[in-house]
Amino acid sequence: MIRTTFTQELGITHPIASAGMARVAQADLTAAVSEAGGLGCLGGSTMMPDELHRQIESIKARTSNPWAVNILLPESLTTEDDSAWVPVREALGRMSPEDQAKMDGIKAFLTPGVVSRQVEIILEARPAAVVVTFGTPKWFIDECRQRGITTMALVGSIGAARRADEDGVDILVAQGTEGGGHTGRASTLTLVPGVVDIVDKPVLAAGGIADGRGLAAALAVGAVGAWVGTRFVATPEAFGHQRFKERVVNGALNQVDISKAYSGKTMRGFRNEWTREWESKQDQAAPFPLQYAVAGPLVETGYIDGDTERGMMPAGQSVQNIHDIRPAGDVVREMSAEAERIVKNLGASFAP
């Protein structure tokens, strides 16, 4: 069994966390990963307050093990300046009622005041950890610390890692460009050791990790565990259309690209007709979260309808290493066991 500062601090068995993927990481997946001994993470950022509360209660009913919640805290979502939301309302107003209904899954990104309610619900629930993305406001970190909640932050650059460290985050998740969803430009094997060198805190590796080999490599470059996303898309517990999961299983490296076509931020996912339309006008993408309204129902049709031609299907370069759909608990246990075998074999290979 692999024990690290990550497993010790969170009280988990395996140094594996499932990524808090918006829409994909709901209660089913979160509870399954935690019950297997990893750290399941609820993708709470897209959930309206009532739904977030229901999902949290569902996790609590399924596992007594530690779990986490992911939340987005950029200024564009937390602002109370009503004028900043006018373009979003106008874009939504131009949609048909049917298309507006398709946006329900990400309504939280398009509704002012939601983030403050999300924060209240999460702090009251007191998960083992909260994972923040697109910003690490010190007031929120302090609120978590007062309640004994471990704080984690996704970072995609050395600069972001320094800021998160200064804001008092407990654990950093260094995500390389190989990762699916919102991601940066630095590779995992350059970013992770770079972050390890500048912070005196535990660092998880993310981006391109889908099996025990990836976990072992992460440990070798100084990480204390792995943050895994795309591998968990291809599980029965993940939310999403079967065609999305099958596309991950059958995907190739050259099919996943970075685009601003859906959210206005750099997001890695499957290339399709919609992303190709935006290849020549990336600089024209509206800022986050307005681009979601520009893309309209396409941000949901991938998950709900299995629309491979235009629907959003975030995925990382690890699709080339994923060959089946299997239960999330099996993924956790097998990944950890494989990494342990690799580490032991390497030790034996280099022993005098």
Would you mind describing this structure in some detail?
This protein has 352 residues and is α/β, with parallel strands linked by helices. The protein has a single domain, classed as TIM Barrel (Alpha-Beta Barrel), CATH 3.20.20.70. Helices cover 43% and strands 13% of the residues. It is built from 17 helices and 11 strands.
N-to-C span: 24 Å
CATH class: Alpha Beta
Annotation, overall tally of beta strands: 11
Rg computed from alpha carbons, rounded to a whole number of angstroms: 19 Å
**Which structural class do you get from the secondary structure elements?**
alpha/beta
The helix-strand sequence is HEHEHEHHHHEHEHEEHEHEHHEEHHHH
CATH fold description: TIM Barrel
Write down the domain tally: 1
For the largest sheet, list the strands in their spatial order. 1-9-8-6-5-4-3-2
Instruction: Provide mean pLDDT, rounded.
Output: 94
Net shape:
globular
Provide the CATH superfamily: Aldolase class I
Largest sheet: 8 strands, parallel
Our estimate of the beta-strand percent is: 5-15%
* CATH architecture group name: Alpha-Beta Barrel
Number of helices: 17
The helical percent reads 40-55%
Uncertain stretches of 5 or more adjacent residues:
none
GO molecular function: monooxygenase activity
Pfam family, one: NMO
EC number: 1.13.12.-
InterPro entries: Aldolase_TIM, NMO
